[in-house]
Amino acid sequence: MLDMLQYDFMRIALVSAILIGVTAPAVGTFIVQRRLSLLGDGVGHIALTGIGLALLTGTSPLLGALVVCVLGAVAIEVLRARSRSGGDVALAVLFYGGLAGGVLLTNREGGGASLQAYLFGSITSVTARDLYVVAGLAVVVLGIVLVFGRELFLLCQDEEVARTAGLPVRFLSVLIAATAAVTVVIAMRAIGLLLVSALMVVPVAAAQQVTRGFRGTMLVAMGVGVLSAVTGLAGSFQYDLPPGPSIVLLALAIFLAAVVGGSVVRRRRTVPAPVPDEARAGATAEAEVRGG
Amino acid sequence: MSSAPPLQMTGGRVRFDGREALSGVDLRVGAGEFLAVLGANGSGKSTLVRALLGLVPLSGGRTEIYGVPPARFRDWKRVGYVPQRLPAGGGVPATVREIVASGRVARRSRWRPASSADRAAVDAALRAVGLADRARDSAHLLSGGQQRRVLIARALAGEPDVLVMDEPTAGVDAASQAALAAILRELAGRGRTVVLVAHELGPLEPLIDRCVVMEHGRVAHEGAPPPPAWSRAAQAEDPHHHGPREGARSDEIGMRAG
Ligand SMILES: Nc1ncnc2c1ncn2[C@@H]1O[C@H](COP(=O)(O)OP(=O)(O)OP(=O)(O)O)[C@@H](O)[C@H]1O
Ligand SMILES: [Mg+2]
User: Fold this and answer.
1) How many residue contacts between A and B have a Cβ separation below 8 Å?
2) Binary contact (A148, B110; C-beta < 8 A)
3) Is the C-beta atom of B102 inside 6 A of ligand 1?
4) What is the pLDDT averaged over residues A120-132?
5) A3-291: which CATH number, 1.10.579.10, 3.40.109.10, 1.10.10.10, 1.10.3470.10?
6) Model's pTM, two decimal places?
7) Does the beta carbon of B16 sit less than 6 angstroms from any atom of ligand 1?
8) Where is the ABC transporter domain (chain B) (predicted)?
9) How, if at all, do strands B19-29 and B34-39 pair?
């Protein structure tokens, strides 16, 4: 674990893994609460078009993806609010549009290899300059969560009640979508666009197995995010595996452990403190039945 | 401005897919008034209160909150709303306290942490609905009636001047209804305005100043609170045969207000 810190690129990778581990689940908590778990995927597909455009025009792929992602997320939110079918179709439209656009543009550029890097991630190719951008974006995302968290919480609970509390509902909806887009861009270099939203959703799913509250879920999810990002990175270095999938599989493993652990914890909690003799007798009887 | 009534609708119309859910409602809710909205399922009660708060757009007429159309109204900390539907429960759990505390959002600055006044209001709201001991539990694991009490507490935590409640007592047991009646009596005593949608008035009945009975998107009857028998009859599909008690005609609108 420590010898990987000898390398500059691994130190950079480690810092960016920590940043991703913290930010993706923080935003993901709101996304899951709003039942928009696939938003990250939609934005991820749109990002491809941004990268394609950037490669074509010779600008920074990070910047291209950022601009196109934020625009796409805002478009998803507007379509979701306007259309009857809800976010579902809106997401699908942008999914396919973004993917097709990205493949088309990168193909013209002959950038199939770099497309690969963005689809599946290559954390070790993150440069120091990328890291500054990613760190800056992470600060922005966490700042938004910190400042607007309470309002976003009420918005995600009940949009109508949020309106009667005088909250700028439309602005907040766009804000959460745009923040999710920024998070996708933060994570895309490391995790890859196809797996980005796993790190927004899976840690939250794991956390809510063992928590009772929103805040608790968010904090535990951030812990799960950092844990899986750092150990996933270390493991991929150790065993020469691709980091993105390693990180995501670790998060999934934690999720499975939490499902099992959570149900045990809940069963403990609901068992009445004094165990009557009958119950014990019943348990013995059951054991006997199983034994026979 | 200060003399403007908390809620006032003139000729309010609401359309859903070409069908009128509200067809020309005139309603004035005076300061300090306790108004009950009765009527059969689908008669437009929820649509009426949601339109009063600007949650559904009017296709005709106008409505004002403290003299200002909802779109331009800014003083939302004066308004509390208890929706009829329980939230579907998003993917993430929230504790009872977190949900109740979110009712303070209109009173708190974005930049300021919770003050002791915020915490005191949340504690008081939790005690008022008898859920102080469940404050740290996940709201979605409570019973339906308990969840409704969480929503009531969320509205109470905001310490609103006008409290709009859409069937807050549906599925709530007798003891909790009596507790709610006690809270509302205290609020009414402090001059707060209450709009209550209900099928069964139950222990809230003595608090009510005026009743509005909705029927096919119109105010069919308006007047003094009906005897308990009427409030049960109000659920019937056809309330024509059970008129409210005498002197309760709609031309008395607003006479009792203020
Ligand atoms: N969002 C909506 N879209 C379409 N139609 C609606 C919508 N909300 C209400 N309606 C229609 O408007 C009419 C009045 O509905 P409303 O919810 O106001 O009734 P209600 O009096 O509150 O009934 P209940 O006692 O069941 O709560 C109904 O016919 C309903 O189908
Ligand atoms: Mg209703």
Assistant:
1) 94
2) yes
3) no
4) 83
5) 1.10.3470.10
6) 0.85
7) yes
8) 7-241
9) unpaired
